[in-house]
Amino acid sequence: MYVPKVNESFLNQLESMGFPLAQSTRALHYSGNNSIEDAVNWIIDHENDPDIDQMPLVSTDIDISIDSTEQFSLTEEMKRKAQELRDQARKKNEEEKRFEREREKKRISYGKELMEAKRVLEENERKRYLALKQSEKEEEKRAKEKIKWKLEQDKLERRGKVQMPLKSPAKQSVVQQKQISHDPIMSVSKVELMSECLRSLKRNHMDNEAKVRRAFQTLLTYVGNVARDPNQEKFRKIRMSNPKFQERIGGMKEGVEFLELCGFERREEFLYLDSEKVNMALLNSAGSLLKSAITNPFFGVFTRPKEEI
Predict the structure, then answer these.
(1) Closest CA to 186 of 211, 209, 159
(2) Which of 3, 38, 111, 151 is the most buried (most CB within 10 A)?
(3) How remote is the C-alpha of 30 from its chain's centroid?
(4) What is the CATH number of domain 190-295?
(5) If one looks up domain 1-58 in CATH, what number appears?
């Protein structure tokens, strides 16, 4: 028994169309080996045959005219061809497996990239959420500090009306008590005078809000520098002829008066604050008033009626 010889061109075409070798060989053999169309029609008509996927075999007794030498050559040729077909099938199978492995690797790699992108997205979302919560906490803290500061200002003004000291001696530090000892009665009325001085400055220059704000900020810088480092003489000495001083403060008598209320004295062309006359409590009160004047848009706009004590 041997595999019948069929048209190689037709066989290759059928295989390229996707038909298995056994089906293609069987279809060409039984359809007369005439054309591709006949072979395809035969496969369609016999697709349910139980032996459709088996290689057809024919008996050597069919062609008795072939001598033994020709039969041997034909058998060897068939074996060689069959081996080639097996090799082709094995190679095709290996190619398909390699392609499948590559596709699986790509699928796994894509899955990992997708998981990593999802993780990064979730991490960024978590960071944004934490940043938002932190921002909300800081905003709430600033609001509380602002309310606390406002209450302190109201308390300061109420004490000013009744001539009360800013703090009880028991709550003041040793340094503050030593500084206040130079001015035993740091009358809160002086704080009220400073407040009225700032209100007057704003009312008298309401037509130039930017200039008023710049004056308040400059005064806060002078007062803050002395409060932070009272031993530095350069902070306690202001040249009134200085162009920047003239531009920001000099043209406003209320600004000079405010500095004088803080302890500065006129000495020729300077405003000078002696180190032994530095009153930290007074400077702190002045700083609080200036911050209120800068941040409160209604500061000095309305004139408050005098209260009876």
Answers:
(1) 159
(2) 3
(3) 74
(4) 1.20.58.2190
(5) 1.10.8.10
